[in-house]
Amino acid sequence: MKVDYSLYLVTDSSLVPKNTTLLAQIESALQGGTTIVQLREKELETGPFIALGLQVKALTQRYHVPLIINDRLDVAQAIDADGVHIGQDDMPLVQARKILGPTKIIGVSVYNQKEANDAIANGADYLGIGAVWDTSTKKIKRSPLGIQGVQDVLRLMDVPIPTVAIGGIHVSNAQELMIGSASGTRHLDGLAIVSAIIASSDPKQTCQAFSGLLNNVFGSFEPPIALDTSSIVEKSIKLVDLLKQTGPMVHHITNYVVINDNANATLALGASPIMSTNTEEIDDLAAVNDALLLNMGTLNDIDAMILAAQTNTRHGHPVVLDPVGAGATQFRKDTVARFLKECNLSVIKGNGGEILSMANRGGRSRGVDSVGNNGGEANAVLAVSELAKNNGCVVVMTGPMDYISDGTRVFVVENGHPMMALITGSGCMASSVVACFQAVSEDPLIGAVAGMLTITIASELAMKRPEVKGPGTFRAALLDELYTISNSPELIRTHARLREIPLARSN
Ligand SMILES: Cc1ncc(COP(=O)(O)OP(=O)(O)O)c(N)n1
Ligand SMILES: Cc1nc(C(=O)O)sc1CCOP(=O)(O)O
């Protein structure tokens, strides 16, 4: 579930104006664009807290907005809230996660780099950074961070996860905070506010003011610098080196036809494969993992795959889906729909039949193989770009040409040898390679291009080997050439055939 943290209302019934009620204030705030609500009621006993929680939940559900409970896991469980917010002196995050399970949202209050990185390592879904400024709503124990202090926490986070700032925030200082705390590509995802909304004589109007201001600010953040194709090739070379130097762990939940090739392709690039399907160890593995690959080939362990995806997302690790045979059977269609709904995918990588069928642009599969043509380049470009945009991820469609898009740009990798289609699992190996690059690339689009350049160039080099006579010798040579590229990444520079298709012209 993708959560919008931008306008985060935290309640306090002691601040509600005399002529109205807490529920009326919350509803008015929801009408004004509040995107998430935290029920924070310090004085309520358990019974009344649960009763109030049920009323607020009915309200937030009507507006399709998540409800978080402050501190009280028991209340959150009793009303099946969407999650909890805990402070540094509350129940430790590790225990809270054990109790609530992987799917509930857990937010943690942090004040500095250490608290932030501990919370991230232990699987927090978001951070509440504060207090930014003095506030009369609560007695603050540590001196206010100011805008610079918030920026320091954002900059020093090991892995970027969603963040909101809290403490003394009003319409008058919100823009200054949002812009001043941003650094590079990092910025706050939202503002958590108590008194400015809950004590307002018109919460709807106050929230509209916050929303308008936030929309402007988010629109002003610089998009990442768009690299041209030769810069992406150079980045790919650096990523091959980084893979070898850092040896990231790549957890695969894959199929039993290709599992050995998946593991060997991963090893050939210097990464470390783990192929567990056991739900008992997903938490422990996610804590030390770097990327997750889900492969639908033999389609077992679907619940384990979804649990692993959610757990890895909480840890900030990219999740790659290889939707093998998507569209071939109703069961596979339903399973793909579950993955799209329940997981936060970084990359979807499939063959023409799979991607076109997911994008509703034709696409035929016989079993797990793509058959027929893909409707030409224009159709391929629309399929990858639309699927990517609609799901907020990168999409790779393999074939004689590989089309790769993040919804804003489309690249074509023109490398590759037709022999790839004659060995089983070459597409699955490509997915392993893409997952390895996701583990080391900050930009999933560049990671996907780097992965596809690497495997397709390896296939061309493999076919040049004198001992390669057909599929059997090619399979072994392909692994060897992945290893060659890992040791000589500059081969990518001499062999890459990478092209960008401007989206506007193709639409
Ligand atoms: C979004 C958000 N951020 C920080 C806090 C503060 O939580 P905590 O440290 O647990 O303090 P209390 O809220 O319990 O006083 C928060 N509630 N929400
Ligand atoms: C609940 C809370 N937590 C804080 C923290 O620093 O963790 S500051 C705070 C109160 C914020 O209220 P207002 O928006 O009215 O200033």
Automatic annotation (TrEMBL):
One example of a Gene Ontology biological process annotation: thiamine diphosphate biosynthetic process
GO molecular function: ATP binding; hydroxyethylthiazole kinase activity; magnesium ion binding; thiamine-phosphate diphosphorylase activity
Domain Thiamine phosphate synthase/TenI per the UniProt entry, residue ranges: 7-197
Entry-linked Pfam families: HK, TMP-TENI
Catalytic reaction equation(s): 2-[(2R,5Z)-2-carboxy-4-methylthiazol-5(2H)-ylidene]ethyl phosphate + 4-amino-2-methyl-5-(diphosphooxymethyl)pyrimidine + 2 H(+) = thiamine phosphate + CO2 + diphosphate; 5-(2-hydroxyethyl)-4-methylthiazole + ATP = 4-methyl-5-(2-phosphooxyethyl)-thiazole + ADP + H(+); 2-(2-carboxy-4-methylthiazol-5-yl)ethyl phosphate + 4-amino-2-methyl-5-(diphosphooxymethyl)pyrimidine + 2 H(+) = thiamine phosphate + CO2 + diphosphate; 4-methyl-5-(2-phosphooxyethyl)-thiazole + 4-amino-2-methyl-5-(diphosphooxymethyl)pyrimidine + H(+) = thiamine phosphate + diphosphate
Record pathway: Cofactor biosynthesis; thiamine diphosphate biosynthesis; thiamine phosphate from 4-amino-2-methyl-5-diphosphomethylpyrimidine and 4-methyl-5-(2-phosphoethyl)-thiazole: step 1/1; Cofactor biosynthesis; thiamine diphosphate biosynthesis; 4-methyl-5-(2-phosphoethyl)-thiazole from 5-(2-hydroxyethyl)-4-methylthiazole: step 1/1
Cofactor(s) in the UniProt record: Mg(2+)
CC per GO annotation: cytoplasm
Keyword tRNA processing: no
UniProt-listed CDD domains: THZ_kinase (cd01170), TMP_TenI (cd00564)
Keywords from the UniProt entry: ATP-binding, Kinase, Magnesium, Metal-binding, Nucleotide-binding, Thiamine biosynthesis, Transferase
Task performed by this protein: Condenses 4-methyl-5-(beta-hydroxyethyl)thiazole monophosphate (THZ-P) and 2-methyl-4-amino-5-hydroxymethyl pyrimidine pyrophosphate (HMP-PP) to form thiamine monophosphate (TMP).
Entry similarity comment: In the C-terminal section; belongs to the Thz kinase family. In the N-terminal section; belongs to the thiamine-phosphate synthase family.
Protein name: Thiamine phosphate synthase/TenI domain-containing protein
Taxonomic classification: Eukaryota, Fungi, Fungi incertae sedis, Mucoromycota, Mucoromycotina
